[in-house]
Write a structure and sequence with these properties.
It holds the Pfam family ABC_tran. With about 300 residues, the protein is of the alpha/beta class. It contains eight helices and ten strands. It has a domain of about 160 residues: P-loop containing nucleotide triphosphate hydrolases (Rossmann fold, 3-Layer(aba) Sandwich). It has a six-stranded mixed β-sheet with strand order 6-7-8-3-9-10, sandwiched between helices. Bound molecules: adenosine-5'-triphosphate.
Length: about 300
């Protein structure tokens, strides 16, 4: 190397920009950006100046949900919780704002999101195993693999030994476990749950809450869970997003810290539980009164 080229090389080395060491931005699993949803409604006459009447179910909802996080949405009746879950599921589209899943806009339903509703919607003529396999049939998973996958997820929700039972031979809690297993079968990253335990008796509800927490811990799914129950919200959520009365907006997101919730001890009786429950109750209280007033005024219902 000539002295000249040596100098050039040194200069090049010295002036080459050092690559920026900024940490990569963590993309949330789900991002809601200013999401709003308005429905046209049939009303006597029309809105102001002849405009079609509408109801604004949700307004300017912004929320990031991290991968693997368990988020609970609570809010008074009619505040738009189910509407929000439908939007996340891609069953409807926002009127304003947008929803991103892994950084990509949600444009419709997809196997990357499993949905569980309050009503199990199981096929009565199929066994538990058949119901779980049903969802996989449409995805082209080979028969042998379907059967194995169905057995695995039924085991995950504690239904080993009940694979051959039909829905009418199962209790309400077991049926809901089958519905959860069905939504887990195609291994979605996100589980969207709309009051899944709302129709169950108190004891079954509590045991399914514990079961769900175990499934969540084992699978690492991102869960978005809707409930009317403050106790359920505080028991399950790592964060509880409290929505306002309609139009639903995020009033506050309450972080919940109860330590491990799957140990045998009765976390629901702890002082920490009572304290965090009270915080959510305080936030909800006024919203429930407003929602009840709205319900008494048919023009706004
Ligand atoms: N398809 C629709 N057309 C017109 N209005 C709708 C439609 N879906 C929902 N709404 C209205 O949007 C508002 C929010 O409804 P939504 O069912 O999302 O509330 P919610 O919080 O889930 O209620 P609840 O807790 O009682 O189940 C309500 O006023 C409802 O009447």
């Amino acid at each position: 190397m000539t002295p000249q080229t040596q100098t050039q090389t040194q200069t090049l080395t010295q002036t080459r920009p050092v690559p920026a060491r900024t940490p990569p931005e963590v993309v949330p699993k789900l991002r809601l950006e200013g999401v709003g949803k308005t429905f046209p409604v049939r009303a006597k006459g029309r809105g102001r100046r002849g405009a079609p009447a509408t109801v604004t179910a949700l307004q300017d909802i912004s929320l990031d949900i991290a991968d693997g996080e368990f988020t609970v949405l609570v809010g008074p009746s009619g505040c738009g919780k189910s509407t929000l879950l439908d939007l996340l599921g891609g069953l409807t589209t926002p009127t304003s704002g947008r929803i991103l899943l892994d950084g990509e806009p949600v444009t419709g339903p997809g196997l990357d999101r499993g949905i569980v509703f309050q009503q199990y919607a199981l096929l009565p003529w199929r066994t538990a195993q058949g119901n779980v396999e049903f969802g996989l049939e449409a995805t082209g998973v080979p028969r042998g693999e379907r059967a194995e996958r169905a057995r695995e997820v039924l085991a995950l929700v504690g239904l080993t030994g009940f694979e051959d039972r039909h829905p009418h031979e199962l209790s309400g809690g077991m049926r809901q476990r089958v519905a959860i297993a069905r939504s887990l079968a195609y291994d979605p990253g996100v589980l969207l749950m709309d009051e899944p335990f709302g129709a169950l008796d108190a004891q079954t509800r509590e045991s399914l809450q514990d079961e769900l927490l175990r499934v969540w811990e084992r699978t690492g799914k991102t869960v978005v869970f809707i409930t009317h129950s403050i106790d359920e919200a505080v028991h399950l959520g790592q964060r509880v997003a409290v929505l306002t009365s309609r139009p639903g907006r995020v009033k506050e997101v309450v972080p919940i810290d109860l330590g491990s919730r799957t140990e045998d001890e009765d976390v629901r009786s702890s002082a920490a539980f009572a304290e965090q429950r009270h915080r959510v109750w305080e936030l909800l209280h006024d919203e429930i009164s407003t929602a009840q007033r709205q319900e008494r005024e048919p023009s706004t219902a």
